[in-house]
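2024-03-11 09:14:02 INFO receiving multi-entity request
2024-03-11 09:14:02 INFO entity count = two
2024-03-11 09:14:03 INFO echoing inputs for audit
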Amino acid sequence: GENVEQHPSTLSVQEGDSAVIKCTYSDSASNYFPWYKQELGKGPQLIIDIRSNVGEKKDQRIAVTLNKTAKHFSLHITETQPEDSAVYFCAASATGGSYIPTFGRGTSLIVHP
Amino acid sequence: KAGVTQTPRYLIKTRGQQVTLSCSPISGHRSVSWYQQTPGQGLQFLFEYFSETQRNKGNFPGRFSGRQFSNSRSEMNVSTLELGDSALYLCASSPDLSMTYNYGYTFGSGTRLTVV
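2024-03-11 09:21:47 INFO inference complete, emitting structure
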């Protein structure tokens, strides 16, 4: 089955810095890669996603990149703010199969004011 | 519109007991998936229900079970609780799993289960 590795497990940055979270996947059939943000006391919320026919996608201060050949994808947050502090999860799933996503273990992002 | 509602928010149970958790999906969503979240393992898939039928099952022992009602509300049950079952249990709804390709899941806030 699919295996998703996520790094780092903890990331501490100063407000205004950039943050990068990286994930690798094992199943070449995976073609959908969502990112979720989980704030304290809440469930994960989809913040951005990317499909295998796209190499990069941006939404204001966040962007995702995908390298299908290397089987890795990354989340980039620029100009970080304290409200970006949360746990971020990457995931991978494949259409045509069960669609069940496999999640990474999460990255705790701490943005210091 | 209302989001995914999970009840109760917190539970404390003793080893050996059983527990039932409830999830009400977004109106119109027919697929309900359950996940166990622990600090060490992240989000682990338990099972998925669609139109009252279990369609997908993760790698958990038979002590974990679930069901879905005709109104799409779902319950999960854990029998003979063990200390290792302490976790945040998350419910996620979608119109159908295939729709998660375009819209992802909508998660509830979870039920925090502590087994003592």
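2024-03-11 09:21:48 INFO post-check: DSSP finds no helices and eleven strands in chain A.
2024-03-11 09:21:48 INFO post-check: Residues 83 and 91 of chain A are 22 Å apart (CA to CA).
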